[in-house]
Each structure stands twice: as C-alpha cells, then as structure tokens.
Write a structure and sequence with these properties.
The complex is a heterodimer of chains A (240) and B (417).
Chain A: H1 3-16, E1 20-26, E2 29-34, H2 36-48, E3 56-64, E4 111-119, E5 124-132, E6 139-141, H3 150-161, E7 164-166, E8 195-200, E9 205-210, H4 233-239
Parallel strand pairs in A: 2-5, 6-7
Antiparallel strand pairs in A: 1-2, 3-4, 4-5, 8-9
Chain B: E1 7-11, E2 23-29, E3 32-39, H1 47-52, H2 60-64, H3 71-86, H4 92-121, H5 124-145, E4 154-155, E5 158-159, H6 178-185, H7 192-214, H8 218-224, H9 232-237, H10 243-246, H11 254-257, H12 278-305, H13 322-327, H14 329-340, E6 348-356, E7 359-367, E8 375-379, H15 381-387, H16 389-393, H17 398-408, H18 412-416
Antiparallel strand pairs in B: 1-2, 2-3, 4-5, 6-7, 7-8
Helix pairs in contact in B: 3-4, 4-5, 4-12, 4-17, 5-7, 7-12
C-alpha cells in the first residue's frame, strides 16, 4: 500500500470519526463507506476543506448487491452424474418475465450508490459508498447541491436502479424509453428485457409486445478460488 | 401590442447537426435559447448489463462500440481495470504499442471532430480533408487488427498480436487503374511502422493546411469566439474533462498527472486555453493533434529498436501460441478454459481512467471473484459534457446550439452506452 494513501486514510478516520463507517484500501484506491444520514456533511467537508479539496465529482453510479457472490456452477461437490451442468437460472441473463431471482444471503443492504471524487489540487481520488437502507424504497440524499455533475448521474442511477435521491430537483428517467416500466440494471431484471417494440401496419402505430427472443447465455457464472497451480519442475520430471 | 410567447422547439433526434441521436427540446424566446432539455438514451444498448453477463475477455469488443470514433482508447481503460484487479504485468513493447495506438486514435477522433464541427458551422472542405487523413490511419487499424473501426485489439496482458511487417495493398479494379494503384501503394511497401512514419512526417503539414483554412478565417471566428464560454470553476463543477477542461484554462491531463503505461517516458506538452470558449477548445484540439504526432514518432523510434513479446506469458489470462497448443497438453487446456469459461478475477473493486480524446474515460469494476464482472460502470466523458449543454447554450442563438454541440465533440455511443 502506498504511503500517501495510508496517510490520507488516517486523516479521514481522524477527521470524520463516527461519521464514516469503514475505510478500506485496495490496489492504491481508497473506499470510504458513509451512511446516508452523514453523506452530505462528509461530502461538504471533502469538497470545501483545503486539505481534501475534492473539486470534481467524476462519477456517481448505483450498484445492486442482490446476487453478490452467487455462482451458477457448483464445482466443489459432484454426484454420480458428475458436476452440475452450470445452468441454474441465477443470473439476469437466464431470467424471464415474472421469474423470481435467487438472492445471495448477505447482511449488507441491497442497493448502494458509489461516488468517485477527484481532487485537482492534490491529484488524488477517493471513492465513497453509501448503502441505502430500505431495499423496497432505497433513498439516498442528493449531492446535486455540491456538484452539478451529479444531476444526470443521479437521474441515471434512478432510471437504472430505482434509487431515489432526496433533494434532487428533477428526478426523471434519463436513458430508457418514454413510459418504460422497471429498472433494467437491477439484478432481477431479465437481460432480454420484458417487452419488445415494432411497428404494426394494421393498427398503423408502434406497439409493445412481450419479448419473443430467447435468453442466450453461453457461459455459466462460476467462482473459483484463486489457487497457485504452478507445478514444481521436479514433479513433472518424475511423472515423465 | 401582440402577445409574445415562448415556444418550444424540437431539435432532432434525426438531425445531421445533432451528431447522432440527440433529441433536444429547446425553449426559445424568439431566436434565443432560454432552456435546453436534452433527451438522450436513444442509442442506449445496456453495455454495462451486457458486460455483466459475459466473461471478462468477451466484452472488449463492446468497448469499441461505446465511443465509436476512438475505439482503442475505450478498450484501454477496460483492459487496464482488469489488469489492475488481476495484477498482470504487461510487456513493455505492448505498452508502447498501446500508447502509439492511443495517440493514433486521438488523431482519428480529432480529425472526425474537426470535420464534423467544420461541417456544422459551414466549412464544407474540412470534412473532405479530415477524411483523407483518417483513411490512412484506419488502414493502420486494419493492418494490425483486421478491422477498420472496431478493432478489439487490446487484451488483458498486452495486445492481440505484434505489428505486421506488411501493409495491405490497393488492387487494380475496374475503377482503379494500374498507375493509380501503384501511386497509392507507394508508401505501403514497407512495414506498418514505415507507413506510419511516412504519415507522421506528412501530418504536421496537413494540420498547417487546416489551420490556414480555419484559424484566422473570419467566418470561423465569428461562429466560435465567445460561444459557449465555460469558466474553470463551472467546468470542474459540471464534471468536464479533457479538452473541455483544458480549453477553460485548467492544465490537467491524466497522461501527465496520473501516468499510465509509458507516458512518463515520453515528451509532450499539454495545450491549455485561456477564455474557455469554443475557439480556444478548437485551438487546444489542433495542438493536441500535433502533440500526438510527436508521441507516435517517439513510439515508432522505440518500437523499431526493441522487439519482444507483446502479450503476457500468463496463460490463465492470455491464450498460448497456436504452435504450442499442437504439442503441449497444458497449453491446450489453458486455451480451452480461457475461451469457454474465461478467467476468474479476485474479489475487489477498481476504477481505472485513461485520457481519452474526449476527456476522462473510466471503468469502475466490481468483482465478486467470478469469471464475469459483478458491476461494470463506464464513466464516459461525453455524458458529463452533454449534461452541461443546458448551461452552455442558455442565452445563445439557435445556430450557436449547433456550434456548441460540435465543440463538445459529442458521440452518442458513449453518452448513451
């Protein structure tokens, strides 16, 4: 871990104390977990304090942790027929309209908003993560008052994940069609979608119908533990 | 006295000056724009969700199709993110090749921008000149990857293959005589590097030609000077990056400030504007083309001297050579596993950004240890620029909206994703 990052993590912990929940370092990147109630206070300090001076919100996005750590292929156990075939309908790619998605058993809330900040003065980045408590109605305070670039980013997160931003002036859908139903990037939304659109020459208008295309996910989602597979040269020689 | 009313005007989505599929609802007071409400998403393909349902190595091609005029730069951010999570080392030659192609891509992008921007504002000839040069660079793309646009050339751990020793040749057809073909093939007799070197020697002269046409052109200046002025503070607030930020006078370039690959070993300058108007952004981009040209020359010089591997030898990530597979069982297994299942990436999250021709292009990856990413977020520079459009066009005339869309260098592939 690089030294300046370690120092920044210490400064953040001392400065914010109980306002931040966790501060993790990985691959030269710092992630700070903040509860929704503290988000605005923490962000304001991060922007205005000359020691942090995060002038720019590079990115804001939603994350759906519904199936975090779920795999479609169990390869640690097998029966007489061998291993499982890796087609358990888990991922969104195999879902159809009306299917219920399998949920990972986890303590952490389902939805989170992730903010990427950039300080031009110190040439530093910081990642903030804010978990929305209620999975039925995830609400996170809006940071549009601090950074204008949050406007469309929050609209996108609302559109894609259905995360509501308290205090956003104009929370409309951004990317999906007019009159779209659902939030397409949620893990329980089918990859092929629910409806398809075509022009109907008889009715002389564009109509929506249930999707006719088949789901086609060719590679199962599989989680394999990282193992060192290097065979020592001596063993190879013995086998030969 | 007649009643004066504001009215709304629908601009696009099928309008040549909308640079793709932008629907702009303009609230007008006479010919002055009071408010602009961009409706985007007409090209939304759900790239992020698609990438979440495919193994890591199968989504590289999707990245080309985001910003479809700077293809390899998109791939670059994506493979950098994967490499960072995996901890894979990239051979130095591959790093130079990537930097060279990033800069080729930057020139390609800026050439399309100057062509389209010129066309929007009324400089018809620019489009023809810019596409003449683009042709050469797309031939370079083709020589190295087989595709003129969507290359899918970068791989986690390097690039797909080394630079070729020959260039594709023009053939004699019913429409192209033998003498024409010979003339066109004159600079294609050597390797790709020879062809590219020839191009870099010609290119500064071409940029001079563009500048003769535009820089002091009275009409060009009337259309650009003081149009779409952005102060440095507002540029930061609105999330602007790249030439949009540098045009406002902030010296910021990820290639210098947070160097990736071998940019810290190369010499180049960052052009910066002063007024933050469209004209300054034009000057910044013109200078960037010249800087990219010198960067390509530096890379060519290095690549000539230093042959070597261009892809990592870690066969969990990169496929083994075909000849190896014919004899080695393990190589065969590696190949099979890689192309059926892909590779599993350790749990974690990473944000990798590159200085894309349009600004900061970043990939935010969350991995839960699977062979498919759990979450991919594409941070597209054009998205932030587009969201700042409303503020930039307020108080301007309708015809300036077109100039401002042009100066933002909007491509909808990346805005809508």
């Amino acid at each position: 871990m690089s030294k300046p990052l370690h120092k920044l993590a210490d400064v953040l912990r001392r400065r914010f104390g109980s306002q931040i929940d966790a501060c993790t370092e990985q691959d030269d990147e710092l992630t700070v977990d903040v509860a929704p109630k503290n988000l605005i206070a923490v962000c304001t300090t991060l922007r205005d304090d000359p020691g942090f001076s995060y002038e720019q919100l590079i990115d804001l996005c939603g994350v759906d942790y519904l199936q975090f750590g779920l795999a479609e292929w169990r390869e640690d156990t097998s029966d007489g027929a061998g291993f499982s075939r890796g087609v358990a309908p888990v991922s969104a790619g195999r879902l159809h309209f009306g299917d219920t998605a399998v949920t990972a058993e986890s303590e952490q809330p389902r939805f989170a908003v992730v903010l990427h900040l950039l300080s031009y003065r110190h040439n530093r980045r910081l990642r903030l993560r804010c978990y929305a408590d209620d999975p039925q109605m995830p609400v996170v305070p809006s940071v549009t008052g601090l950074w204008s670039s949050a406007d469309w980013a929050e609209r996108e997160a609302f559109d894609m994940y259905g995360i509501l931003f308290d205090g956003h002036q104009d929370l409309r859908r951004l990317l999906t069609d007019y009159g779209f139903v659902g939030h397409p990037f949620r893990k329980d939304f089918p990859l092929v979608g629910n409806v398809e659109m075509r022009y109907d020459p008889e009715q002389e208008r564009v109509i929506y119908e249930p999707v006719s295309i088949e789901t086609r996910v060719l590679v199962p989602r599989v989680i394999r533990p990282v193992v060192e597979t290097e065979i020592p040269p001596a063993d190879v020689a013995e086998e030969a | 006295m007649p009643e004066i009313r504001n009215y709304t005007l629908n601009f696009g989505p099928q309008h040549p000056a909308a640079h793709g599929v932008l629907r702009l609802v303009l609230e007008m007071d006479g010919e002055v724009v009071e408010r602009a409400d961009p409706h985007i998403g007409l090209l939304h393909r759900g790239t992020e969700k698609l990438a979440e349902n495919k193994p890591y190595n199968q989504s590289i091609g999707y990245m080309d199709r985001l910003d479809y005029v700077s293809m390899m730069c998109n791939e670059h951010a994506y493979v950098l993110a994967i490499e960072k999570l995996l901890g894979v080392e990239v051979p130095e030659r591959a790093q130079y090749i990537r930097v060279m192609f990033d800069e080729i891509t930057r020139i390609l992008n800026h050439l399309l921008w100057i062509g389209a921007h010129g066309l929007d504002v009324g400089a018809m000839a620019m489009f023809l000149y810019a596409f003449r040069e683009r042709e050469d660079l797309m031939d370079v793309y083709e020589a190295v990857s087989g595709a003129r646009l969507h290359a899918t050339y970068y791989r986690p751990g390097g690039v797909a293959r080394d630079l070729p020793d020959t260039m594709p040749q023009y053939e004699v057809t019913r429409w192209r005589s033998k003498s024409q073909a010979t003339r066109l093939n004159e600079n294609r007799q050597g390797s790709l590097l020879d062809f590219l070197e020839d191009f870099t020697q010609r290119f500064p002269g071409y940029v001079d030609e563009y500048e003769t046409l535009l820089t002091d052109n009275r009409i060009w200046k009337q259309r650009l000077v003081d149009i779409g002025v952005v102060s440095p503070e507002r540029a930061l607030q609105m999330g602007f990056t790249g030439p949009m930020l540098r045009g406002s006078g902030i010296e910021w370039d990820l290639r210098k400030k947070q160097p990736y690959e071998v940019y810290n070993k190369l010499q180049f300058d960052i052009p910066v504007g002063t007024n933050g108007d469209s004209y300054d952004r034009y000057l910044v981009r013109m200078e960037e083309m010249r800087q990219s040209n010198t960067l390509i020359q530096q890379c060519i010089a290095w690549l000539r001297e230093n042959p070597g591997p261009v892809l990592t030898e870690d066969h969990k990530v990169a496929p083994p050579r075909r000849a190896e597979m014919k004899e080695d069982m393990e190589a065969l297994i590696h190949h099979f596993k890689l192309f059926t299942e892909g590779f599993c990436v350790p749990e974690g999250e990473v944000y990798c950004a590159v200085e894309h021709p349009k600004g900061e292009f970043g990939i935010y990856l969350i991995s839960d240890g699977a062979n498919k990413p759990y979450r991919v977020k594409i941070r597209a520079p054009g998205f932030a620029h587009m969201s700042g459009l409303d503020e930039m066009v307020r108080g301007h005339m309708l015809s300036d909206v077109v100039a401002i869309i042009g100066t933002q260098d909007i491509v909808f592939g990346e805005v809508d994703r």
